[in-house]
Amino acid sequence: MLTSPYKKPRIVPLQEHPRLMLKKSDVERIKNNFTLKECEEAVALWHALCDMKIVCEGATPEFGTYDLSEYLSLEAKALRALLSEKREDAREAIECALLLLRNSSFDKGIMKARWSGHLIFVCSEVYDWCYSYLGEDEKSYIISECEGMAEKYFEMGYPPIKQAAISGHGSEAQLLRDLLSLGIAVYDERPDIYDFCAGRIFDEYVPSYDFMFAGGYHPQGPAYGAYRYTCLLWAELLLYSMSGERVFTHKLASLADSFIYMTRPDGEAVRIGDDFYEKKAAYTRGAPFAVPMFFAWSYTGKDRYREIFLRGLSKEYLLPSHRGIDYYVGGSYGEGLFSPAVQLIWSGLTERVEDTPLPCRKYFSSPVGMTVWKDSERLIIMKIGELWGSNHDHLDTGSFQIYSGGILASDSGMYDSYNTPHRKCYAIRTSAHNCITVSDPKKPLYGEWKEGAPYDGGTRNPCGGKEPKTLESWKEDYRMAKVLSHTESDTVCEIIGDMTEAYFRTCKSAVRRMTWEPEKGEYGTLTVSDSIDSLSDEYVKAFHIHCQHEPKVDGRVIVIDNGSCELHCRVLLPSEADISVIGGDGNRFITDGISYEAQGTEDTEAGWGQIIITHAKRSIHTDFKIEMEIKKKKA
Asked: Which residues contact 318 (CB under 8 A, 6 or more apart)?
């Protein structure tokens, strides 16, 4: 029995079954979903999964016994038993669950917490949906085996006291879906499991997300932010489908809008932070937010989320043909977070809501502080970044990006894997973004950087890059900047941020102003102005612009060409400027003179290189003012 240090949750499971993902009153709606055209593929795959034989051999030997298709088959069989109310269907599901529990091993590979968590989840579905057909010994066995797997494999430990809500794997499915589902399913026999897991969610996760999502944006960016948003909505929908009550901040309902703003006109996600979309299969890269939008629609009933989901829905999201070893392979949505059964159960969960179109401009307030302009051809991002999110967030305080007919000014590098030299020494660093650097010629490595790390003059690295353990620590220790003002109108979007906290190692003051005027010039102009006071006149202040193709430099004008548009960058300040261009083979990913190459950069937006603008004269004070005008190329 678990002893919970948390308050008794204000929502407790119903005294009836089913109660996991659905109630008795939901059965007719679910049966009706089987008749809907938009569910046809899910129904066909569900039938195929119901007929599949589960043998627990695993998808490939090197990854142990995990095979996503078998786990989805168990889920499908359990749902069939619930809907048919036939003993033989229920017993088949129960026997398959017992087979998997007796024979599964997750000792190989790095995803053991996700794989074992998925098994805990589907066994919880069997437990709840086939409850009346389970023997007492079988109930005890399922509970014991699930607890044992969590204790052995979970990164959060068991009971789940490790990791945190802000970032990292603690904000994924281990607690928010898998153990919460177990607690709901077995509440009659073991209320302590639910009380502990839901208690932590109510006490720690709810207030953390109230603050974290106040600005309507996920600090882990479009890729990991969307993945973790899906996990969070799992917890919300599990509790809502059981009780009819909303638990988390009301901002959760509109957080999906940020992913719409993060979708470029070509349908791909803008690269902010670690991005896994660009190396995915075409169906994922071209519709990156389809699955999160399903959950947003289930939660809100809003038409726009449903339309994005249906437009991007692929058979591969429902049942991956590669058998789903891991989310990083092929592009499936990982460990059963989405499946035919999930679509059939949660489609139409919330009453339909007609909503108005989104405006072309949006300010995402603290803790991010970011202004976005998006229309059918252009996407402009101006990010101050008040609090750094660690984990998959990058050190990109004060960054900007410009897209029109393709990338013009972009982030650089790629997410090849979490602990590679390319990511740690280049891709996450400030100099790999459209930011400023202020470099001490002595190249000191401060306490937050490990010995041997390259020096780039970028922002500080709070707490050595470790994930914040508490909300209070995040608020206090990971502050990088403050938005001083922001303006959004049809003719101008502007954001001004004080970034001194991020650069306090080298600066007395660092302020950036970014002004987007969509009607200025030929096709819109972004003007970025910096006012920097360094601690020494020896420190080198540099303005970085990254691009996908080699630029042309003509005096104080730099032209970046993406094939359909050009970006004309005019250096207005400093009056005496040095302009250098670094890129091409062997020079694309340079930090402190060393190239940190990445594997598999083909067909990615890792970048060609960068333009570096510096003040030709050393001084305490430096002003940068770069005017970047978009021009369409003539046919």
From this structure: 41, 42, 45, 338, 339, 340, 343
